[in-house]
Amino acid sequence: MTDPFKDRESENYERPIASREYLLKILTDAGKPLSFDDIADEVMIPLDQEEALQRRLMAMCRDAQITRDREDRFLLVDKTDLIAGRFSAHPDGFGFVVRDDGEKDLFVHDKQAMKVYDGDRVLVRAVQFRGRGDAEAKIVEVTDRAHDSLVGQVRRYDGVWVVEPRNRKLVHPVVIHPEQTAGAEVGQYVSVMLTTQPSKNASPTGRIVQIIGHDDDPGIEIAVAVGTHDLPHEFSETALAQAASYGESIDPAIAATRKDLRDLPFVTIDGEDARDFDDAVYAQRSSTGGWKLWVAIADVAEYVKPGMQLDTEALDRATSVYFPRQVIPMLPEALSNGLCSLNPEVDRLAMVAEINVTKDGKLSKFNFHEGVFRSHARLTYNQVNAALEDGEAFAALPGSTPVQTNITDLFSLYQALKLTRAERGAIEFEAPEPMFEIDENGHLSGIGTRWRGDSHKLIEECMLLANVAAARFLIRHKVPALYRVHLGPPTDKLTATRAALAPLGLHLGGGDEPTPEDFQVVMEAARGRADEGLIQVLLLRAMSQARYEPDEKGGHFGLGYDAYTHFTSPIRRYPDLLVHRGIKAILRKDPSQYPYDLDRLHSLGEHCSNCERRADDASRDVNAWLKCRFMTQRLGNTYQGTVTGVAPFGLFITLDELFVEGMVHVTALPADYYQHDPTSHTMRGEKSGLTFRLADTLTVQVARVDMETRRIDFALLGAKPKKTKLKEVLKKQKKKGRRR
After folding, report:
1. What does the alpha-carbon distance between residue 82 and residue 80 come to, in Å, rounded to a whole number?
2. Secondary structure class of 258 (helix, strand, coil)
């Protein structure tokens, strides 16, 4: 039997492997599960292509065409009447199976959920239980366990030692034998190695392998977050040795083969506390009134190559993770802060985007080079912001006169790009970001405000141009790659957002498929309002989550691009490193340097997207811990806050000066029976008529801080709740709309 789709595969891949259809036929004809060796023998694949076949089979598992059993054999899903998916737990004990086939999630009753931890891969059967409505999942088999260790807090109940997982979605406490406590004390955070997994009839068991510390130890929040979210944080000796083997300066022999740009006055512009510099820029006015922009990006791909242990560990992390005053880097410091960092006045290897921009800010021509260059000055955002506003500060910029001319040309380019951005309707959020102030003991001492100035936006626009050029370059040369895809908002989020905006007198246009311009119209209408920050949050909640995919056709909704990729940060993002490898393969006309087919890129995209979310979750976890610890010192203090969420059980309040969110529970509101309206996001007292809604200004007192749940409770002291009935509010808004 031969593959009927062999010709098609030959067109798509230089070294084709068995098509999906052929593999499905092999499993169908066999009528039983087959091992990988069985399948490899059937398709007669060479040894050096076994990895590619393994990737294709795993991709078919991901797409729910096939699945694997406990013996690691492959079988047809539709032949078994089983549904493959991932278990997603709720802290209250129940959960859902997120199906691999993309169909509606299946509910998992808490009795079934006793068998699994959050993230476990399962095979389930959809079962209709009497009186329960929709079909539910009955777990038939756990095919892959997501956790072999976890981090939690030591407790002792009636003489039994247990560790309660820090991750609230891991709802099963781990029982510890008294001889396996490693000397840990009640209340300490520890790392536990699981010796048995949860089951229907027994709790999981484990042994303590590391004592992390008490909850008030400096830096404990980061150590706990690392363990809770399974963040790789230590490099192997092999990876460290590989990174160090390149030395501290570039190889002159390699530099001699590159486009030499060392005379151009490139600069880096970053924050004061930046330690790695992965991008440098230089702009020059052209005789036609436009600009030539050079964006030089650290050439990580020259040092981190497929097959190296260094690459394996970089992929495992997929991204650097940023905490206040600490970073878990994707690459060892010998590269991230050393040889790959574009430090001033030293020669560096770079991947360089050469971009021509018209006088009206449109990208016209572009090309890419393997270059050698040097940064002529390390500038900070604050320095450049000051220089753009003050002549003396401009004259004081470090570097030569050409550096100053570069800044002038970059700013004029930015002015043109800003207009182009507005024309394509890209959404631009202007909300301030919290800036944590950490003392010498590692504790949060204050929360400030960080605003983006023109220098931030200037660099952002240059990076956007380089990323778009990279996407078009890869598409032009038909090289499969990972793109940054951001789809338009889903219908359910649009409905919720419009309902939240209506009581604020705002409307999001565009029907079922609004454009970025529709969002920007709302942003402009909110400009200068007291509730502008809240409105931005509401619009952000409507957005889909961006992800990495090998299909550019989804485009980037928020930025208004048809195709977009990440090229500018290979020191801290693995997808950027992949893009660099693809561009290098094009420039060198050597496809062997880029060993990625579509199946592999699908898998990499999913992995990198998951790692990005993992890093974000860990950062939020640390920030929440720091905020709660900060507020424990402010019990009884009074603050002004804004209602940023309304739920049946209370009001979410964000303190205006601290960016700290807490809750006024419904029982802490003035005595009444309150009705929650999810459509208008209001809470209305039946007897008093008091109505609390989004954007209300309240005065609250810090009443309670729970460090375990990271929950802050406020007591209501003063408010300006409305006594008007909701019907009257909507009637006024309708009249106002007619007047417009």
Report:
1. 5
2. coil
